[in-house]
Amino acid sequence: MKKIVDDERLIYKVCCLYYQDDMNQKEVGDYLGISRSSVLRILRKGREMGIVTIELHNPRFYDYGDMEKTLERVYGLKDVVIVESSVLDTRQETASYMFGKAADYLHSFFKEGDKIGVAMGRTLNNVVSTNKVYEKFNDLLFVALEGGISQITVDGTDIQGNELARKYAEKFGGTYSQFLSPAVFSDKKVLEYFMEEKAVNYILEDFKKLNVVVAGIGIPDRVEHTLDKAGYISARERRSLVEHGAVGDLCLQFYDSNGDTDGFGFFNDRVAAMRLEDIRKIPSKIGIAGGKRKAEAVIGAIRGGYVNVLITDNECAKRLIELAEKSEK
Q1: Rounded distance, CA 165 to CA 177, Å?
Q2: pTM of the full predicted structure?
Q3: Which domain holds residue 114?
Q4: pLDDT tens, 32-79?
Q5: Pairing relation of β-strands 248-250 and 253-255?
Q6: I need a labelling partner for 82 at 20 to 30 A (CA). Which of 5, 27, 134, 216 fits?
């Protein structure tokens, strides 16, 4: 005898009563004269057979097309991606949406043969640490943009460029090249002598191959700055940078509201990293930053030519538009 859970007509009827007529499982069972457990099995069978499909519509997918176009036009950017940040979300939730969107964007942006510079920092670590899984490329090269030989971690996580280059190759496919150097030297001359060594200066040739750079954008007046936690800079040095007009940092190097690095050589010149003036020459420079406090740092990075693709949230985007309108008055 045919089981009732295999009766397609009964399956369809149970599904109609439950999903369309809003009966609960007990009411459906009483109406048809079958047990509640049978109703549950039939509903499960209906989903397996495709009689019932469930579709979720995420209300977070707001259309920021006009705002993105405005930012592209006002700041001369090649592309802008804006992610919703809701007042109902925690900072962690808001950031996680942006990091997930950034990971999706990077996978769609990369193409076979790309040579991609990866900066250090929590932002890029959070992007690559999302639980999203992608089809891997065969011919990508990820290059660490700063030195990263030390035992330093931030909150127990290695966010140095070498480790991130490895993680990005693991996430998206391809290979990676490490910058076998400390990140910050005690003296500019020591760094210059060090970079003359053949065991290290191969990285300069790798820098010349890059056609994409991916970097987070920092702000020096942040109370708990990543560079502080990583031991790369002292609180006194950071205060001095702010006093000299620094509004942002990218690849461990500081710049002012116009993107100029003049006046920050006492720190920047001791950093083992691809120089900002060389990053300016890369065709695609993807900056990732969220929150309205980062707006001035983003503007400085754009004006300096260190970013021409921006992934941000709507709070930062609104502030960027406000600052642009203010400067026009």
Answers
A1: 7
A2: 0.78
A3: 65-328
A4: 999 999 999 999 999 999 999 877 665 555 578 889 999 999 999 999
A5: antiparallel
A6: 134
